[in-house]
């Protein structure tokens, strides 16, 4: 009952932050939003209310009337007539770009050239060629250089760090990542299914590839298979589901599954999850002595452990998540490898705060904790915003980050999957980066 009450309280406060909200600092960063996107309230506007150093100052959309209604609804003080007006406004320090994928490259480059820090929705670009152009583009003279962050928000939550603490990267054998969404969420004419805007399930659900890379801590060598389901004409170049496999440098494999057109029951019954299976490794008695079923090996014997770790609901862990760790032990003969005794040990873990995960709290997190009534209610997006601000301010933060090189490797992985599936890479923007300078 206490667990249920805690979950209800945590989720209520995530949606309804406690009052009074923390006062804004005099030097608070002022952020402009490019596009009146549905994701912005969850990803930025609401988390910004809890951050004393962030003010969502302005919004612009293709339709100024829509932008005005959006600003009124979300308490944004300024409506500008175009995306460019936001970039030209000297009072705006940073921009959030939740535009369709095909527009990310142009507006991220323009914003960086204007010296604006950029929080960029994933996937950052349409393909690896665009990411390479970003790394090669002329850098603004502003020092320090403006910050660019691709919004893989799940990486910033303590649950992800705690999950990785149970993973033995050199001995990973296999990883499976899944993300299934219901067709009820997106109409067939949704921009996610427009090739000219760089749509497709491998793009929109790129989390599964990010998870594989994050767990292995390295880049895949090959996409060994990728099968997709495609939309009906005229959107037949866009995939709505995929199943793929990968080979990683340590000989391990990766498996990914995702759909934007699944059933409602499928979505509710299969929360986004990642499961890591390890190779059998020799362990010492002190590593399992607490297990009541444990048997200590005698001369000529050894104990090996095979570990399986699952993180349930890696995308929105604040709502609910659980880390399941299953260790299968075998005492066996060292020469013949014949098993003598078997047993299993199971544990579960959760981490809604950095303290839960046994992680140090940096100064920004401690300050925010004093301002918020319930730190466990911080969403992945709140943790991400903290990291974004810390990086801009030159503070060490928590260490979680997505580098430009990381973004490039992520786009390379997406390209590999499309190539293996026999689909065209998403189209490269015609925008010339030199025009942004």
UniProtKB/TrEMBL annotation:
Catalytic activity: D-xylose + NADP(+) = D-xylono-1,5-lactone + NADPH + H(+)
GO molecular function: D-xylose 1-dehydrogenase (NADP+) activity; nucleotide binding
Pfam families per the UniProt record, alphabetical: GFO_IDH_MocA
Superkingdom classification of source: Eukaryota
Database matches in PANTHER family: OXIDOREDUCTASES, TRANS-1,2-DIHYDROBENZENE-1,2-DIOL DEHYDROGENASE
Family of the protein in this entry: Belongs to the Gfo/Idh/MocA family.
Name by which UniProt lists this protein: D-xylose 1-dehydrogenase (NADP(+), D-xylono-1,5-lactone-forming)
Species for this entry: Lasiosphaeria miniovina
């Amino acid at each position: 009952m206490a667990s249920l009450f805690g979950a209800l309280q945590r989720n209520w406060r995530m949606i309804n932050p406690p009052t009074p909200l923390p006062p804004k600092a005099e030097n608070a960063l002022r952020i402009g939003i490019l596009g009146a996107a549905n994701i912005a309230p969850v990803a930025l506007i609401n988390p910004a209310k809890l951050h004393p150093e962030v003010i969502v100052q302005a919004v612009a959309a293709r339709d100024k009337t829509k932008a005005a209604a959006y600003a009124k609804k979300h308490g944004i003080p300024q409506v500008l007539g175009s995306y460019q007006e936001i970039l030209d406004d000297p009072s705006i320090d940073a921009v959030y770009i939740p535009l369709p994928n095909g527009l990310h490259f142009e507006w991220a480059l323009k914003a960086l050239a204007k010296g604006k820090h950029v929080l960029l929705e994933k996937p950052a670009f349409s393909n690896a060629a665009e990411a390479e152009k970003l790394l090669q583009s002329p850098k603004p003279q502003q020092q320090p250089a403006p910050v660019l962050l691709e919004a893989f928000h799940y990486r910033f939550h303590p649950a992800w760090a705690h999950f990785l603490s149970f993973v033995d990267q050199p001995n990973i054998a296999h990883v499976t990542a899944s993300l299934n969404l219901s067709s009820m969420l997106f109409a067939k004419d949704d921009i996610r299914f427009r090739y000219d805007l760089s749509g497709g399930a491998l793009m929109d659900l790129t989390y599964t590839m990010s998870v594989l890379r994050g767990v292995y801590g390295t880049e895949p060598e090959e996409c060994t298979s990728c099968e997709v389901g495609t939309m009906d004409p005229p959107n037949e170049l866009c995939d709505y589901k995929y199943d793929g496999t990968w080979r990683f440098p340590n000989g391990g494999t990766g498996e990914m599954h995702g759909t934007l057109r699944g059933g409602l029951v499928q979505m509710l019954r299969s929360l986004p999850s990642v499961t890591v299976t390890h190779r059998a490794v020799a362990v010492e008695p002190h590593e399992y002595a607490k297990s009541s079923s444990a048997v200590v090996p005698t001369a000529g014997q050894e104990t090996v452990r095979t570990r399986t770790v699952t993180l349930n609901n890696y995308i929105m862990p604040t709502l609910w998540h659980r880390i399941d760790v299953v260790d299968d032990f075998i005492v066996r003969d060292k020469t013949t490898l014949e098993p003598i005794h078997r047993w299993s040990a199971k544990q579960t873990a959760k981490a809604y705060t950095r303290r839960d995960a046994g992680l140090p709290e940096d100064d920004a997190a401690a300050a925010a904790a004093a301002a918020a009534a319930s730190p466990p209610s911080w969403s992945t997006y709140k943790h991400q915003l903290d990291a974004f601000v810390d990086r801009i301010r030159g503070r060490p933060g928590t260490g979680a980050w997505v580098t430009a090189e990381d973004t490039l490797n992520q786009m390379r992985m997406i390209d590999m999957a499309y190539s293996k599936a026999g689909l065209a890479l998403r189209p490269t923007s015609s925008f010339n980066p030199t025009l942004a300078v």
